[in-house]
Amino acid sequence: MADERDEGGGLAPETRAITAGRASNQSALAPILWATTTFTYDTVDEGRRLATAAGTERFYTRYGNPTINAFEETIAELEGAEACRAFASGMGAISAVVLGLCSTGDHIVAQRQIYAGTQLLLQTMCPRFGIDVTFVDGTETGAFAAAIRPGKTMLVVAETPANPCLTLVDLDELGSISGPMTMVDSTFATPLGQQPIGHGVDLVVHSATKAIAGHNDATIGVVSGTAELMSWLWNFAVLHGANASPFDALNAHRGVRTLGVRLARQSATAQRVAEFLEGHPSVTRVCYPGLASHPQHELATRQMSSMGGLITFDVDGGIEAGARFVEATRIALQAASLGGPETLVTHPGSTTHVGITLEERAATGIGPGTIRVSCGLEDPDDIVADLGQALDAAVG
């Protein structure tokens, strides 16, 4: 697998997840909660400076806050980025990139295999602002570059691994695109699973609500990139207003500290579950980058240092069997999130991707019996047994 060890300091990402973001902690071991919306200042000149400086942390929490900034510093370091901005959700982060960088008359290239919320943002909101969007097959070599309109394309949007069928985009190919800015939603991989900026990508987005925070107690998104780009986005974000709360930033920062061990356990469980599902007679397809049968397995081993805790599979029997399966699990819970300590199952066609058409779902690989599993921290034997009995109930 890809080695993402820091060449400068020699520290592994798992170590930097522990050591980063402590500059303003003084002697406190845990992140400090600054539960204030407003900070005082002594002079008019100081107020003017704080009101106009990008990244200021002690003026007004919509502009910045020490708790939020510490979390941002940690994510930036893990991504190998110069700066980071936290938002109230992953969609808040994505919409800030799209609307903060693109204007009327601009063009966006995006992959077809993408989270439905992002797809709907690009399909419904962008046209209202006169922003044109072209969707391409993100697994097809050269598809992004071929769709670029010189002088018009402002942004290329990718998601890898993609939600929910775990298709991959070649980060080296994406990072080599010149002209428009490139953005990768790296939520499924986490900053410990891959670092797109190291492949030449301009911006990396995460729904940090998921595995980064990791305990289902924070709703938060992040964007990382160069200081210049993040300064531009910071100015838009102050007007956009979808800033992260100090409380969510505190919980997310706490979650980062254990991301290494959680990701290792969830990835190991996912590998075992995927192998079990691949051998089950009632399962017609298993999508997991760690399987040799995954059509992009070689690419995964080249650009990912961890295969992650997400698995997607198709159960024989279509939507009825899929519904019976998710309702029959006893340990795994039905929920539309991922990356937390509990194993979760969801039927994408009726939850995460219900807002797009059947044709659009089919184009992204979502069938009537498609199931997504987010492996948690339970004993792997218990999870395998639970999914096995649910499959028996679904098709028995």
How would you characterize the overall build of this protein?
It is a single chain. This protein starts with 12 loop residues before the first helix and ends with a helix. Helix 1 runs antiparallel to helix 3, helix 3 packs parallel to helix 9 and helix 4 packs parallel to helix 5. The chain has 396 residues and is α/β, with parallel strands linked by helices. The protein is built from 14 helices and twelve strands.
Roughly what is the average pLDDT, rounded to an integer? 94
Distance between the first and last residues' Cα: 39 Å
Strand content: 5-15%
- Biggest beta sheet summary: 7 strands, mixed
Number of helices: 14
Keywords:
396 residues; single chain; 15% strand; globular; 5-stranded mixed sheet; 7-stranded mixed sheet; alpha/beta; 12 strands
Draw up the topology in text.
Blueprint: H1 13-19, H2 44-52, H3 66-79, E1 83-87, H4 90-101, E2 107-111, H5 116-128, E3 132-136, H6 143-147, E4 153-159, H7 171-175, E5 181-185, E6 203-207, E7 221-225, H8 227-240, H9 246-257, H10 259-278, E8 283-287, H11 297-303, E9 310-315, H12 318-328, E10 333-334, E11 344-346, H13 358-363, E12 370-374, H14 380-395
Parallel strand pairs: 2-3, 2-4, 4-5, 5-6, 10-11
Antiparallel strand pairs: 1-7, 6-7, 8-9, 9-12, 11-12
Helix pairs in contact: 1-3, 3-9, 4-5, 4-8, 10-14, 12-14
What's the quick description here?
The protein is 38% helix and 15% strand. The protein has helices spanning 13-19, 44-52, 66-79, 90-101, 116-128, 143-147, 171-175, 227-240, 246-257, 259-278, 297-303, 318-328, 358-363, 380-395, and strands at residues 83-87, 107-111, 132-136, 153-159, 181-185, 203-207, 221-225, 283-287, 310-315, 333-334, 344-346, 370-374.
